[in-house]
Give the backbone structure.
Amino acid sequence: MIVSNLELVFGKKIKNHLGVVQGSSVRAKHAGRDIMAGLKNLVGGELKGYTELLQESRNEATERMIEQAKSMGGNAVLNVRYSTSSIAAGAAEIYVYGTAVILSE
Amino acid sequence: MTAITQFVLLVLLLAIGYAFGRMAEKKHYKRIINEEKEMNVLPAISTRLPPENKIYEQQLVLGSVVVANDYFKFFTASLKSLFGGRLNTYESLLDRGRREAVLRMKRQAQSLNAELVFNVKYVTTNLNGGQKGAMGVLEIFAYGTALTPSHK
């Protein structure tokens, strides 16, 4: 499965467009991380717990998108875009979408 | 009495924030500048269409970082926002965050032996969920397509 935010694949032709596929994931931080982050907030800098949380969340959303593309019979997702929105103080939604295509040599 | 303790606490928080925040920022900038020099061999480009003269393998690469201001900067920024104008403290925070996110993305590209990162996009999100008066916690996320020369 090729996942890319370009609109083409080198050396291959797009045989068929299957439409937009998407994946999303909403995650909240657990309390322990929240307290640590609160302390870290005092001195500033990177909040590693949150960075990891959002990375996991993003991987999950991407996995879901890939699953959808597979179920449609696609072998690549092109022109992938990510967006993040903060829906509550402790939670963020990660949304990823792209175009599922069938590639041929 | 309580007013005095509150004042002392505020001064203490400001002092801690100032001392550690400043130290951390200096250290971070030093590291960013060094790593950027190292990573100059692997340019990240925001052009949409890749070069056509060579065959590459492509893969999505991501880099993200969640950053927050220290208490001193938060305090001075909220004072300053009464009068308006530039908020340098937030500018430097976002600058650091963005450069760090791009470095992480490039590191991932480097592990794939990539030559270029194409079509770089940035996403910035405020993670405090629209709470008023809350300290800004920002996520900065950069992504692009790593191009590795193909040997097929």
User: Anything to note?
Assistant: Chain B touches chain A through 50 residues (CB under 8 Å). Chain B has three helices and three strands. The first helix of chain B runs from residue 2 to 39. The first strand of chain B starts at residue 56 and ends at 68.
